[in-house]
Design brief:
Blueprint: E1 11-18, E2 24-26, H1 29-35, E3 39-43, E4 49-52, H2 54-66, H3 76-82, E5 86-88, E6 96-98, H4 101-107, E7 114-121, E8 124-128, H5 129-135, H6 140-152, E9 165-171, E10 174-182, H7 185-200, E11 205-214, H8 218-233, E12 237-241, H9 247-253, E13 259-260, H10 263-274
Parallel strand pairs: 10-11, 11-12, 12-13
Antiparallel strand pairs: 1-7, 2-6, 3-4, 3-5, 4-8, 7-8, 9-10
Helix pairs in contact: 7-8
């Protein structure tokens, strides 16, 4: 039996968020819609958490129970998953969910530290950023062991994240910095270097398009905020275009930066600003 039921959405993409002081982690809107309410969070065989929709969770439990021995002794995986499972809801206004203390301890999630939220097809994984980075360096032998566990449960194999890249493209006199791949520490430094190059260009308006990038972190947003202020001091326009899933985080961390969910809306805003008119309505979604 496949964990992903027919008709359920495929959950993909990785995002980096900061664990808040209450131990809550944000879920992108697509993940919230895919998992439904309530969903199940439990520990994984490794140092991370897994989130299931209720329908996928029921299928997992059925498969694990069939793995019990003839005397009814629970399997190790059944104890791992079922014994630590918790039913969770996301807050409607913030998109966050509260991670139970025992599960936070298992995954090494600490308030103020970054967590990686990654869609893995039929489920969502939540890692501490440090453990996630370490997992990407896993040896081939260890990766094979993890893969075997995933195959036993008919779960997707671990994925390698694409490298971050950015390319500057002029459009209607505007410098658009198109980004792609996954933001890590090096990606944030690369973004800063690209923005420095844009600062030296002659264009009066610079836009950063993040819609094809994943893993937008606190450091990434700090870089964007710093360059927004630098361009503003130079009398130049600066805006950010991103996916609706990342808007909640950007709204919290970039309150003074023009943020849009489509390039078209950003271009209309820039035209209105250059004419000294009030900017047109920003394309925001709750």
């Amino acid at each position: 039996m496949d964990v992903l039921s027919q008709g359920e959405p495929m959950l993909t993409g990785s995002h980096i968020y900061t664990v808040d002081p209450k131990g809550r982690v944000m879920l992108p809107r697509a993940f919230r819609d895919g998992l439904g309410q309530p969903f199940i969070v439990t520990r994984a065989p490794g140092p991370y958490l897994v989130l299931f929709s209720r329908s996928a969770w029921e299928q997992i439990i059925q498969r694990l129970r069939r793995g019990q021995d003839e005397e009814g002794e629970p399997s190790v995986l059944l104890r791992t998953y079922l014994g630590c499972a918790s039913e969770c809801h996301t807050d409607a206004s913030t998109g966050r969910f509260l991670v139970p203390p025992a599960l936070r301890e298992h995954a090494g999630l600490r308030p103020g530290r970054e967590a990686v939220v990654s869609g893995m097809g039929s489920l969502v994984e939540v890692w501490s950023k440090a453990q996630w980075d370490e997992a990407l360096k896993t040896s081939a032998e260890s990766l094979q062991e993890v893969t075997e566990v995933h195959l036993d449960l008919e779960l997707p194999e671990p994925r390698v994240l694409p490298r971050f890249d950015a390319e500057a493209k002029p459009l209607l006199g505007i410098q658009i910095l198109e980004t792609r791949g996954h933001f890590n520490l090096q990606g944030a430094f690369d973004l800063r270097a690209r923005l420095t190059e844009a600062e030296e260009a002659s264009s009066s308006t610079v836009m950063v398009d993040l819609r094809r990038a994943t893993g937008i972190s606190t450091l990434t947003l700090q870089v964007l905020l710093a360059y927004h202020r630098r361009f503003r001091d130079l009398g130049r326009l600066f805006a950010v275009v991103l996916r609706p899933d990342d808007e909640l985080l950007a709204r919290e961390r970039l309150p003074e930066v023009p943020v849009f969910c489509s390039l078209e809306a950003a271009l209309w805003w820039a035209e209105a600003e250059t004419r000294n008119q009030p900017p047109l309505r920003r394309l925001r979604r709750a």
